[in-house]
Amino acid sequence: MLSVFLSLLILFGVLQQPALAFKKSYIVYLGGHSHGADVTSADLRRVADSHTQLLASFLGSEEKAKDAIFYSYKRHINGFAALLEDEEAARIAGVIPSSSLWNKARFGQDTIIANLDTGVWPESKSFSGKGFGPIPSKWKGICQFDHKEGPLCNRKLIGARYYNKGYAAYAGVPLNSTYNTPRDVDGHGTHTLSTAAGNFVAGANVFGFGNGTAKGGSPRARVAAYRVCYPKMNESSGECYDADIMKGFDAAIADGVGVLSVSLGSDSVDYINDGTAIGAFHAVKNGIVVVASAGNSGPTPGSVENVAPWFITVGASTLDRKFQANVQLKNGSIFQGMSLSKPLPEDKMYTLISAAEARAADVSEEDAILCKEKTLDSKKAKGKIVVCLRGENARLEKGEEALRAGAAGMILCNDESSGNELIADAHILPATQLNYTDGLIVFSYLKNTKNPQGLITEPKSVLNVKPAPFMASFSSRGPNAITPAILKPDITAPGVNIMAAYSESTSPTEVPSDKRTTPFYIESGTSMACPHVSGVAGLLKTLHPDWSPGAIRSAIMTTARTRDNTGSPMKDADYQKATPFMYGSGHIRPNRAMNPGLVYDLTVNDYLDFLCGIGYNSTMVGQFAGAYYDCPNNYNILNFNNPSISVPDLTRSVVVTRKLKNVGKPGTYAARIRSPPGYSVTVKPNLLKFEKIGEEKSFKLSIKVNGRRGAKSVFQFGELLWSDGKHYVRSPIVVASPNQ
After folding, report:
1. pLDDT at 460
2. Which positions fall inside the PA domain (predicted)?
């Protein structure tokens, strides 16, 4: 089997003749091959293709890579020799350190990652099979694309299925051929699958912006798509139905999937009535890591979705990159905005008008300011830059309304709930988006200036933005409405302005007048954050094939970070301090997750005991177990071995039990506690000594109210940290008490 991307190591360079004075001969060593005795010419050709593809990801094109490579080591030594500039060689050697999780886990090689979503665009370069060896023998799935379209699955995209009978039952009418295929006509499924495990693609961009090499979290993993989501039939209908979702889970388990990425959800309901939770339980029971999105109903408290403890539930936060398109007013004021829209047709000042002032007859100011459909008067808006307010209707729909009214451009100002969260949209007219504070200033300028004018600058990519990450306002929040003793979300990951592959059967805005298509697009949502964690889970599956889904979940959670790139505590979109109800354990840190030191492991029986503890009887639990299950007596769900600790209704004091497993070197771990305000927290024992891998030790955490008036009815937050000086195993503590 092909063993590529083992370690990117530049061995040496030899000066060439003067004609090539600026280039040197470099060897890129990638380890060894394991072809076996029956290696074929096709296998060797795939090795060479993989070398070309790797180098192209740094040089920008396969043509440049082919020109540079003069040897490809294909039989026993894995690597290639190429003529490179010093800067190019340094970039190859330095971009991916040998100590990184990517290298240690061989880029997720041969782990199978699948998603339940809107399907897949198989022609995307993110799913190219070039350079991949034979499909892993554990794979039992199929490819349901119409054979008339040719062999659309390959050694990368190894499977694709569709399930739509639940959707059809709701529709009540026969479905046409566009539904009976795994092909993605929406873009969502292609985007999430390529984020989790897309291959290396050089020169990826969105309408020329963000040019670079696209790659998923586990770029050498195999992928499969299960289409279970379809276009909404009406405003009250769903897109993904439980019957189809559960069928997707059932098939994925049988097919041999290792990680399931589930960027879908709905309002939380009891687990036994939640098809996604039931399907996920059976997947985890069979050793599959299931990662799910937290939902996009923030900042409403208690809005988090996919709250069962066997999910890794993911919130969304920002990157340190933005696509900046500023607003410049005639008075000299400049405000930083965000956009992927085309520039204004002329470099000049345009008349600005509030959408409320541009409203059509018989339209309220409240509807017009939001630029709702058919609210603007073209006689008032034509040729001007219309200033709209975010909220209620979709951002891209506002741009469509401004264009319909003949506006030259649009400035979209955040409402208060959106705060500082800026989304890079590819509007169908020149446009940009401003944060809430700057938007207030612009509206004030319009109101108090006789002839307000301004312009929108052309978008440009800006890196190393600070502060980052901060939470997206749309990211759903805790507390967990079903089981408050289980903190959700578990983790946060990049979910704002994420570039990934896209379906070329739809426009990026999905508005009727937009005829553009693009192989890559930028999307935002917890749907985009979820596959980032799925990709990391794939790497951990490759690196630690013996770890359980619970161990992988714990490693990701306990190694997360709660500070931004300024060293300050993470913030929400309004720049107020964020809490574990927003980010769970914190922002994911993949390189730390590969060596967490200790994990809070969970078995299937732990999950069954949890169900007993929330009141399910043995018969109900048996439905999950597959047989009658004898519930333990007096089980307390506060002792469920969760990596986070949540006590939602503490009257005086409580003792919580947890168990840690050593997955690293022998060591002695000491406990450090930051007690929630109004409470005292102690741990016994406060030292845990581990002498071998797999050894488990328990501890008890005592939480006590500080006096009659010490505790508060609102939730308070603290932290438990176990450390041996090298590893830092961190758990958030969340406590609330009834009114004293």
Report:
1. 87
2. 368-440
